[in-house]
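To fix ideas, we reproduce below one chain and its tokenised fold.
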Amino acid sequence: MTDTADETIRYTADVVLLAAGHVLLIERGWDPYAGCWALPGGHVGVGETSLAAAVRELEEETGITVATTDLRQVGAYDAPGRDPRGRYVTVAYTATLPSPLPPTAGDDATTARWWPLGDLPSLAFDHAEILAGATSS
């Protein structure tokens, strides 16, 4: 039997930014996963699309701006338990730059840096799955 009780669901957007065999990651500044590496992303604001939130969060957390037209949707990730704070649904986007741009950490990121795709740290949440989805197509 399926539980049909109402559930609070939070809406987020994440970005897989690629360049020259590298992916841009942030080190999280607070829990959950404080000190762990993650894709740039965050909550979708009231009246905002996930695409607009992806562009905004990328710029806030890394100082790098991409146009909405440069982002391609990877998919929606909604597995129960993907975030320890509760039910979160994210729409992930990807873009590829010709070469890495220097990032500047901001917002809730303590560090932002490019990682070689073949030498990645452990990633927070289900971000390894999102990254795999973005790089397999």
In short: The chain has one domain: 21-135. Helices lie at 50-62, 127-135.
